[in-house]
Amino acid sequence: MNVVRLTVAQALVRYLAALRTDNGEPLFGGVFAIFGHGNVAGMGEALYRHRETLPTYRAHNEQAMAHSAIAYAKAHMRRRMMAVTTSIGPGATNLVTAAALAHVNRLPVLLLPGDIFVSRAPDPVLQQVEDSQDGGASANDALKAVSRYFDRIVHPAQLLSALPRAIRVLTDAASCGPVTLALPQDVQAMAYDYPASFFEPRTIEFHAPAALPREIERAAAMLRDSREPFIVSGGGVLYGLASDALRDFAHKHGMPVAETQAGKGALAWDDALNVGGIGVTGSSSANELAHASDCVLAVGTRLQDFTTGSNTLFTEARLVAINANSFDALKQNAAAIEADARLALDALSQALGDWRASPQWTTRAHRAANDWRETVAHVTNTPVPDGRLPREADVIGAVQRSDDASPAGDIVVCAAGTLPADLQKLWRTSAPGGYHVEYGYSCMGYEIAGGVGVKLARPEREVIVIVGDGSYLMMNSELATSVMLGAKLIVVLLDNRGYGCINRLQQACGGAPFNNLLDDCKQGSLGAPRIDFAMHARSMGALAEHVANIDELEAAMKRARAADRSYLISIDTDPARTTEEGGWWWEVAVPEVSDRDAVMSARADYERAVKARNGIHD
């Protein structure tokens, strides 16, 4: 047997560099790295050796670079991905939030944190977490709960089994998510005689299960018994490359389609059966139809509370769920089809034959879809009232109007606050991937880092990051990374002087405005700072300007589109006004006792809503 003598780090990097997708592209688009004493010697040397075939990207924050890697995989519909390497200690634990984000969103990322010495000879090393009751404890243990597969490489031969297992999880439709291979720094440097065949180029097959005939027949029978069926399209439609199958299925059988945050873009925004977003941040048309439906076909969705209206939206319907992951397919007591979205939709359509929904239902869906498109046009083109600051809808309208040629060709990136709600309602996209909003974990700080990953994946597209001042202040350093990499972003920053979304929720629950908007926070003698976001962006190498109104924003967007580097535009917005159209109830627990009348009134409303969900009426 031919062997190659390599260190663990060298073997790992060489293995990753040899993997290919079915169209011949490298499976791994690169490795994001911030070096420290736990990875600079081992992984650093190995990455340098393979820097031409497996590029290394330097970032400014470990959580942010993991966000970039996750966004890269999402933009590639999970068909390509990235790895991330950090030192031990804070570098590794900075990955925990990003790993949770990838876990919740079912997105692949390979995490390669450095770890403590297996030999224990120099214990305790710098940044080592010690446990008086567990000598083998490591800070990396914090990643176990948020990894779909975790392994600590304590011997060089372990890679021969750990790496294939890791790749299978990363490329499996059912188990996809973050993988952590913790790399003790002494083991990284150990040499071993590896079989040369282990490093031969190989094509990775993405595993997606086909539907069982009995599951298809049961679902087909349920749909045939319905007259007013309804489709909820989730992220699994996009990741399963099932957009065409979904469109064909919906039109053949006359069924309206609503999209989750992760599934938005599966159908073109102006498709006759696309009734808009679903749930708490969805359209009024979609929610009205969903609530009236007698059978819901949920395709590739986790059915989280924003999709189901905290389990109040589908109360009159039986549920059929298509999902590669059995855990998700069985939610809501659904009739499960544990399968890939495209394969299942094709099989289900064949089983249904010429069956169609009630003609009246399909006609109602066409009318509802058109009504919502008219609502979107009205909301995004209504002038800002005199004396008022613009709101999110005004900004979204201006951004999309700023490109007369193909506004639906942009990729919008966002993650948290009011913006995802308004974007799900109002953003128009004509192709899969044009809507990139991380709302499974709703992680503030994802936006700019995610934008970098999207731009690396889709350099030919205009990537527009829309972000609030709160998220920007949490994590903005990857704007400098975007400039360094030539990964141009347009960042539209809405400054409402604090956390406007949570401030409104606080008051809706009866609370007093407190600790959310800067003016309502505890302050020293100098008061809350006035932040010049344009100046801050320019300090990191981007172009930037502040605009005073929507007309100026449209003009600035044209300059940003023509720019040769990342460009930030800031605009002051109203923290109190938001889009009233659309939406649905969301359960947020209100205190049962309080000395505030407003809280007790909100509690009474909450209790009535919970009773209604449970079928109890006063």
UniProtKB/TrEMBL annotation:
Q: Name one GO cellular component term.
A: acetolactate synthase complex
Q: Which residues form the Thiamine pyrophosphate enzyme central domain?
A: 216-348
Classification via InterPro entries: DHS-like_NAD/FAD-binding_dom, Myo_inos_IolD, THDP-binding, Thiamin_PyroP_enz_cen_dom, Thiamin_PyroP_enz_TPP-bd_dom, TPP-bd_CS, TPP_enz, TPP_enzyme_TPP-bd
Q: Which keywords belong to this entry?
A: Thiamine pyrophosphate
Which residues belong to any copy of the Thiamine pyrophosphate enzyme N-terminal TPP-binding domain?
8-128
Question: Which CDD domains would you find in this protein's record?
Answer: TPP_IolD, TPP_PYR_POX_like
User: SUPFAM superfamilies given for it?
Assistant: DHS-like NAD/FAD-binding domain (SSF52467), Thiamin diphosphate-binding fold (THDP-binding) (SSF52518)
**Which residues are in the Thiamine pyrophosphate enzyme TPP-binding domain?**
416-570
The record's annotation in NCBIfam families points to: myo_inos_iolD (TIGR04377)
Instruction: Write out the similarity annotation.
Output: Belongs to the TPP enzyme family.
Instruction: State the name under which the record lists this protein.
Output: IolD protein
